[in-house]
Each structure stands twice: as C-alpha cells, then as structure tokens.
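Lab notebook page, bench 4
Experiment: in silico fold of construct C2
Operator: M.H.
Input chain length: 307 residues
Purpose: comparison with the prior construct
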Amino acid sequence: MPAEIYATVPQFSIVIPVYNDWEALEDCLRSLNHQTGTPGFEVVIVDDGSRVPAPESIRQFSSHFPLTIARQPHAGIPAARNRGIQNSKGAIFVFTDADCRLDSDCLTVLNATTSRLPQHKYFQLRLVGDSSNLVGRAEELRLLAIQSQLLQPDGCIRYLNTSGFAMRRSAVSDETFLFDPTAQRSEDTLLLTNLIESGELPFFATDAVVRHSVRMSLTECISKDARVAWLEARTFEGIAARGIKVRMKNRERIAILRSMWKASRQPSIGRIAWFVLAARQALQRAISLLYCCLPFRSKVRRAANSP
C-alpha cells in the first residue's frame, strides 16, 4: 500500500495491543502493508508496558500507512484495546493481535460486507490457524469446528474473538469502556454477553480471513492453557451470575469433538492434532471445574461485588 496521510477519516482503524511481542507484530504489519484494493486505514498499536519500546523495525511502517504507537503502563489487554479506541479515528474498528496476519483481501472483503449490511454493527472475521506445526494444526481444527458449530441460520454467530473482530464506531458509547478493564481474561466473551443481552450477535464475515500463528511449543501451549483456564474461570462465573449461557453444554462439546474428529481426516490437519486438542480442552475443563469446587469462591465473589 503506498504511503499516504489521509486528510479525511479513514474507513478502518486497526487496533493491536502488544506486550513484548514485537517480532510477531512485524509479520502482522507486513500483512497490512500487503492489503489490496482496500479503502483507507490507520493502524493503532498500544504498547501495554513492554520491557522495551517499539523498535525501529516497527516504527518504519509509518512510511506505508498512518501509524500511531501509544505506550502505557502494563494494564492488560482490555485496557490496551480501550486505549486503542480512544486513539483511533476510523469509522470502523478492527481488532486483531500481534500474532495474527490478515489475508491480502481481508479489509476489501470486510469493507464490502459492512457496506452491504448497514443494519449490523458488529462483525466476526473468520479465523484460521497456521498449519505449519502441530500446535498450529490443532488451532486450525479448533477454530474450524467452533465457528461451524456456533454459526446461526441468519448468518450471525454466537462467538466473538478479538483476534479478528470489527465494529462500527457508532456502537461505542463515549461514557463507558467497550472492554471491561477488570477482566484478566475472556474480555471478548464479556462483550459477547453484552451483545446477547442487547439481542445483536456479530455477523460472520466468512470471507474476511485472519490467520492466527501460534509460535509456541506444545509444552508452552499447555502451560498457557492452564494459566488462561484459571483466569477465565472467574470471568465465566461472573457471566453465569448474570443468568446468561455462553458456555457450551456437554452435548455441544461432544458434537464439536465429533466434528473435529471428522475434520482431522484432512491431510493438512491430521489425527494427532485432534488428540492434542482434545487433551488441551480436557485440561482446561478440569481446571474450570476445580475452580468451581474451591471454598474461597464465595469470598472472592462477595469481595468483587462489594462497593
């Protein structure tokens, strides 16, 4: 994309939170630079207290598209995304992560989708995994099954993942944060909960593709799964207290496992990826159930709800 400073409001503001992940971010920005036929966009990077500020290899992308880098003390992903919104000018926010890459026609397709459906405010982009390693193949299998299972007949989806999510600026209130800054994990699920309450699910932009590149070994991935599952458990407890069902029922989990088993026959994925994914999900479920059984939960809940 040629260098250009837009005199008018750009169509898209690409908001990317970063915490020490500058190397992966370079590939993400490179994918944005390779967008074809897209309307104007800007990129807003929020450095959430990284050990070192953005290197020159990141800053040099400002010669290809409007680039803003906002640095803040480490406050977590939700706060970083809220900061990105505050520093953005675009008519539509597009949220992604440093370890994601947009297909070259992603923004062009998203622009056509949002123009064709002015009645929709929220859009879930299609996420796919990077199948270059075993962890990536397991991620591809997971995303394929979940998005297929949760897609509704009307084209909307009961799923929200900020690795590839877009929304119109008109949907954001100036008085409130879009993402709950107190959430340590699953802030996107909290947002989905709000959308369910308001009766508006994201529309699934199936041809606007974002690729999630997992750069971890299997051991590192399982360790992260355990940490994340513990943090997510408290978020899901708060959602359940609101009387909203966002977690799958057991029969839905079984249906997804069966769907993933069928999909794992593809040579690009393989059966081993299914076993890896099933083990990871079993671990996450076990940790979630353990959290629910611990006696301190009631004390934590009362503390969280106290003024």
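Observations: The CA atoms of residues 19 and 86 lie 19 Å apart. Residues 1-7, 302-307 have pLDDT under 50 and may be disordered.
Next step: discuss at group meeting.
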